[in-house]
Amino acid sequence: MSAVEIEVKFRVADAAALEQKLFSLGFRQITPRTFERNVLFDTSDRALRAKQSILRLRRYGKQWIVTHKCLPPGHEHNSRHKHRVETETEVKDGEAMATIFAELGYKPAFTYEKWRTEYADSIGHCVLDETPIGLFAELEGPDEWIDAIAKKLGLSPSEMLTLSYGRLFEEWRARTGMEATDLTFEAVGAAR
After folding, report:
1. What are 75-104's pLDDT values in tens digits?
2. Which one, of 112, 183, 114, 123, lies nearest residue 148 by Cα?
3. Nearest residue to 54 (alpha-carbon basis) of 32, 86, 97
4. Domain containing 169 — which CATH number?
5. Which domain holds residue 77?
6. Among 111, 107, 84, CA closest to 169
7. Which pTM does this prediction carry?
């Protein structure tokens, strides 16, 4: 099923403080801290990336999910929030899916990992992601809801990010000079 995903990320200094704020705003935890490994697939000439499109295979706990994301028609590139058409489905065998992608010419291009905890209120979601390069949270829901919750969390517009984890990783590599090629706990730990 396809839907337009609307989200922003923001850096988190204190995970416990964020969780307390979320609970005070009526959020509930819907998924406890769970390990997630994502592999982005692309052609050798990075054709998907050139179109700002992704093909992702995610292992979230015991669940495998295949996702395709792309820009919506007529998308404004200067939006405060990230908008993507997201089509995803659960698959039974992720390893078999990776083999199918390879046979179709899509090879692993980037891997990123995180520990994710999910929260929701009656309208949207907030996830807390513990990544190898720091703590981030994402707000996902309607534009107005994102702005309202961000304000209640004390976030300024300048703190809201529309960058992917791949782009955040590239910025981290440029800032630190580290040579890790994937955003995994092993690769980043070895590069430090």
Report:
1. 655 578 898 899 999 999 999 999 999 999
2. 123
3. 86
4. 2.40.320.10
5. 2-191
6. 111
7. 0.91
